[in-house]
Amino acid sequence: MSARWIRLVLGGLFGAVLIAALYFPILQRRVKQDAKLQPQTEEQARRELTQSLTPTPSEPRVKAKLYWASNANDGSLTPISIDLPLSPDPVLRSKQLLNTLLAGPVDPELRTLPPDAVLLAFYLLSDGTGIADFSEALASSIPSGIESEQLAVDSITRTLAENVPQVMRLKILIHGQEAETLAGHLDLTGSFVVNPKAAQATIDPAAESLLSSNANSRH
Amino acid sequence: MQIRRALESQGFQVVQTRLANENPSFDDRSALANAQTGAVFISLHVSSTGLPGTARVYVNSNLAGGREANGLIPWDRAQYPFLGLSHKFGDLVQGNLAQRFKGSPGSAQASAIRQLRTTAAPAIAVEISSVSVDDRVELDRMAPGVADAVARGVAAFRPSYVVANISGALR
């Protein structure tokens, strides 16, 4: 191979390395941007699929009180009043409230539930027991610990207690199944008291095998 | 390990439900605890959230319908007859922790903690905040204070650990 060819090949290689060096930072930036956008897009898609709950014009706007973490970072909750179009039907109303709770407060630091968790279904039994079925992300994405798990359940039960008087107790399912714990600590095998007075009045001790009351935990 | 040493220095016998990376089930841990006579049960945790440098004590929240018609207490409600003692024990430990770690609550809180429900003994969970600290040294610095507070709490609780129909007191 002549010296001229060697110079040409080397020059070509040098040019390719130079182009790659210039393009690499741009590629890196795009990958980072995509990584940031991806979870939000998936989350939105899931929410759109599971939430066919667009408020109808007939649903009156109500000042609802939702419970998110307080600024003090002390494991307590703060009520936030929000104008929401809420259905008078307790099941639809519960779904609307829990979806708003999942969407989170203005300050994401005050979230009580993971952003990628989705409410899959909500049922209300005739004895006032609400059954909320969440996606697995509720259990897998929540920060582990008694405090954070308790805060998550308290934010749900207190929001329901404030806005849906028909719900007296709450049973939480993960992807349609009963889970032993939320994320390793909080017991999900029983039901949580939402409305303590009403729940007490309707309870049948023989039928209720286990009632994990959180009525006196953080209220 | 520091808690174990602090308790042993007060004359208590310590049985750990796990020593390394094994992961026994809730029921396995309860079975080991329930086999001890006159024991108390302490579950230790480090949280992912909460005010750094604080510690909280939890006791099981109320369990409805504790006894069966035949007078026996089912396994899944084993904590039921000990709830009052657990509250007392929890308050004593939390009081000691609050003296050492500012911002910690003054009394134990109730929560539906799975591990405590099947434990047939005064049982508490101690949770330290939090793994989110910038430097792990901050958490390590809490260890002696937590160990001392727990050991003092157990010692203070000892005289009141008298349960009718349940034999034994703290060894």
Largest sheet of chain A: 5 strands, mixed
Quote the beta fraction of chain A. Answer: 15-25%
How much helix is in the residues of chain B? 25-40%
Poorly predicted spans of chain B: 167-171
Number of helices of chain B: 5
**Total helical segments of chain A:** 5
CATH superfamily of chain B: Zn-dependent exopeptidases
CATH architect. name of chain B: 3-Layer(aba) Sandwich
- Rg over alpha carbons of chain B: 16 Å
Task: Please identify the structural class of chain B as seen in this structure.
Answer: alpha/beta
- The CATH class name of chain B reads Alpha Beta
Q: Name the chain pair with the biggest interface and residue counts per chain.
A: A-B, 33 and 30 residues
How far is it from the N-terminal to the C-terminal residue of chain A, by CA? 85 Å
Mean pLDDT of chain A: 83
Structure description:
The complex is a heterodimer of chains A (219) and B (171). Chain A is of the alpha+beta class. In chain A, 42% of the residues lie in helices and 18% in strands. Chain A has helices at 3-50, 90-103, 137-140, 146-163, 196-202, and strands spanning 61-69, 77-85, 119-124, 129-134, 169-174, 177-178, 192-193. In chain A, strands 3, 4, 5, 6 and 7 form a five-stranded mixed sheet that branches. In chain A, strands 1-2 form a two-stranded antiparallel sheet. In chain A, a hairpin with a 2-residue loop joins β5 and β6 (177-178). In chain A, α2 (90-103) crosses α4. Residues 204-219 of chain A have low confidence and may be disordered. Chain B is α/β, with parallel strands linked by helices and 171 residues long. Chain B has a single domain (2-160), classed as Zn-dependent exopeptidases (Aminopeptidase), CATH 3.40.630. Helices cover 36% and strands 12% of the residues of chain B. Chain B has a four-stranded mixed sheet with strand order 1-4-2-3. In chain B, β2, α3 and β3 (109-111) form a beta-alpha-beta unit. The two termini of chain B are 20 Å apart. Residues 167-171 of chain B have low confidence and may be disordered. Chain A binds chain B through residues 73-75, 143-148, 150-151, 180-181, 185-187, 189-190, 192, 203, 205-206, 208-218, and chain B through 26, 45-51, 56, 58, 61-65, 76-77, 103, 109-115, 117, 125, 127, 129-130.
